[in-house]
Amino acid sequence: MIRCRSWIAPASCDIGGAGSIRTFKEQSLWADVIHYHYPWPFADVLNLWVRPDKPKVMTYHSDVVRQRVLGALYRPLMSHTLRDMDFVVATSPSYAKSSGPLTEDLSADRLRVIPLGIEEMSYPRSGDERVLHRLGLTGGEPFILFVGVLRYYKGLYTLLDACGQVKHKVVIAGSGPEEKLLRESADNSGLRNVIFSGQVTEREKVALLKACRAVVLPSHLRSEAYGMVLVEASMFGKPMVSCEIGTGTSFVNRDKETGFVVAPEDVGALAQAMNSLLVRDDLAYSFGVAARQRYEALLSGAAMGNAYTHLYEEAASKCSLVNGR
User: Fold this and answer.
1) For residue 93, how far is the Cα from the chain centroid?
2) Residue whose C-alpha is closest to residue 122's, from 198, 200, 197, 203
3) Which of 237, 253, 234 is nearest to 245 (CA)?
4) What is the rounded (10 degree) CA torsion for 276, 264, 38, 311?
5) Residue 215, strand partner residues
6) Which of 85, 99, 121, 263 makes a 20 to 30 Å CA pair with 206?
């Protein structure tokens, strides 16, 4: 792996200096295929500046959602980059259909869908079960687990409201900009079944995923483009509860197949879905088995790797035919 220094990061977008441009040019000379990731405007600048004459593939992770003014300024460069790609990959069929840039700036023959996956062997084989003792989860009582950065679009205030209708414990694992307000909200509401774990290690996360009854991702805004925690839940054979927001979350979690998909910010529906999985062992088990099967077929590291290998070969072959090589 070759890394270059980030000199500045406006709107969380890393920008490098002249050295990064030079390095990109050098690496693009020997590469057979160049793979870009969107959104990262500096990559668009690199592509426009260097103009590498190689097959180009882009993985399109998410629309620019929150930075509307910056997004409008960025749109001409983004459109140019999309048109310059040989293939653009959406991470789910729903995102391919609902993303404005993908439907407006890209011809259908250059759009592909390859789900994001996780390589199971990259995770610790055993979890650190001391986290269960620390959080008081050793009594065998089923609990619901949220894992992720505590951001504005995660729907966590709706989750707290729903916890008032749930008798069992709900663990919120992670830290982030909303943590202080979430803790205050839970205290003010007198929620005794909500446990904030704070930041957890990889081994602690594995222990929580293995022990939980189900995983909840109540994200209510399109900023949640995919939800990798749902892939993690699938890998561990856990049923899920998520919201229908028109993104990849409803591709990973299939309603009434691997879990429940409810309307965003619907407190009652969210609580009902969690309660159903908490009280019905058979339902949680069948959804969990289906989730694991879906992981092995579509969401594993091998599945994603094979799909990209075929796409790289198609891109290289296409460019060879065009260039007469």
Assistant:
1) 14
2) 203
3) 253
4) 50
5) 145, 240
6) 263
Q: Which tens digits make up the pLDDT trace of 222-264? A: 999 999 999 999 999 999 999 999 999 999 999 999 999 999 9
The phi-psi region of residue 62 (left if phi > 0; otherwise alpha if psi is between -120 and 50; otherwise beta) is: beta
Which pTM does this prediction carry?
0.91
Q: Do domains 6-117+302-323 and 120-299 have the same CATH topology?
A: yes
Peptide bond into 239 cis (omega under 30): no
Instruction: Name 261's bridge partners.
Output: 242
Axis crossing angle, helix 179-188 with helix 156-163, rounded to the nearest 10: 20
Q: What token pair was written down for 3? A: 């890394």
Class of domain 6-117+302-323: alpha beta
Rg (CA), the chain: 21
Assess contact for 298 and 231: CB atoms under 8 A. Answer: no
pLDDT digits over 140-193, tens only? 899 999 999 999 999 999 999 999 999 999 999 999 999 999 999 999 999 999
CATH superfamily membership of 120-299: Glycogen Phosphorylase B; (3.40.50.2000)
